[in-house]
């Protein structure tokens, strides 16, 4: 049965970096892994070191533009499904699917209704699906991927960051999101605030499953735009993300 993990968080918290390192961990195991970049501000291919030419957004635009030109008796879902498989990037150890730009002007209900069924069938081919999502919860309410087993909220090392995670946790319970577990990962943590963050998480009734330390190697790579996927094994951030993956039962 497929396990679906979604990673979310405010911009700048490092959610894409955490997603990248989780994918790296998974590729070293005997799993069929699908990575999905569901953030319109696409950064996951860059941190993974992948070149992506076409996205699901491109296919969605094509289907919308050709809707009235296709023969009425043709199976439009089959056409869309074949094109979705064309934009899956096969990488060593995992496949990558980039959702791409958000919906433009016009109604996308027609395409999205087709896409929902395709995504549900697609993820059944994998042991683990991991999504790098946008900061909001709209992608869950739209249900392009219906069920999420574990939602990881990445926050920075601050009280405000944990309070944001608390709000996301509460929204998940209020909305019909089909999310199983909600976990919090504090990123860019240092020795002076680690214990305080753990105390705050307890006060807010948040399940803090990891505190990822500030890693100068990540800082330097982000500055020049080089991938994070091949961080050295002695990376402090990598070691903590590996520990988080094990706590998730991966």
From TrEMBL:
Example GO biological process: negative regulation of cell division
Q: Which UniProt keywords apply?
A: ATP-binding, Nucleotide-binding
Record's keyword annotation contains Nucleotide-binding: yes
A Pfam family annotated for this chain is CbiA
Q: Which residues form a coiled coil?
A: none
**Cross-referenced InterPro entries:** CobQ/CobB/MinD/ParA_Nub-bd_dom (IPR002586), CooC (IPR014433), P-loop_NTPase (IPR027417), ParA/MinD_ATPase (IPR050625)
Q: Which residues form the CobQ/CobB/MinD/ParA nucleotide binding domain?
A: 5-225
An annotated GO cellular component:
cytoplasmic side of plasma membrane
Q: Is this entry keyworded RNA-binding?
A: no
Q: Which GO terms label this protein's molecular function in UniProt?
A: ATP binding; ATP hydrolysis activity
Transmembrane portions of the chain: none
Q: Which protein, by its recorded name, is this?
A: Cobyrinic acid ac-diamide synthase
């Amino acid at each position: 049965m497929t396990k679906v993990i979604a990673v979310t968080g405010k911009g700048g918290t490092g959610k894409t970096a955490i997603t990248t390192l989780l994918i790296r961990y998974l590729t070293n195991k005997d799993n069929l892994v699908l990575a999905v970049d569901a953030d319109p501000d696409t950064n996951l291919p860059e941190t993974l070191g992948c070149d992506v030419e076409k996205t699901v957004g491109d296919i969605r635009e094509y289907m919308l533009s050709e809707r009235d030109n296709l023969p009425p008796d043709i199976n439009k879902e089959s056409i869309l499904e074949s094109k979705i498989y064309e934009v899956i990037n096969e990488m060593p150890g995992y496949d990558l699917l980039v959702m791409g730009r958000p919906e433009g002007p016009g109604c996308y209900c027609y395409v999205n209704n087709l896409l929902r069924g395709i995504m549900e069938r697609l993820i059944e081919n994998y042991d683990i699906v991991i999504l790098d999502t946008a900061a909001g919860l709209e992608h869950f309410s739209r249900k392009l991927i219906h069920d999420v087993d574990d939602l990881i909220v990445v926050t920075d090392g601050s009280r405000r960051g944990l309070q944001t995670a608390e709000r996301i946790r509460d929204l998940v319970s209020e909305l019909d999101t089909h999310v199983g577990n909600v976990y919090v990962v504090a990123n860019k943590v240092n020795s002076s605030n680690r214990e305080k963050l753990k105390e705050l998480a307890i006060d807010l009734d948040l399940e803090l499953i990891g505190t990822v330390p500030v890693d100068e190697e990540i800082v330097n790579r982000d500055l020049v735009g080089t991938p994070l996927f091949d961080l050295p094994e002695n990376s402090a951030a990598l070691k903590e993300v590996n520990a988080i993956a094990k706590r998730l039962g991966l």
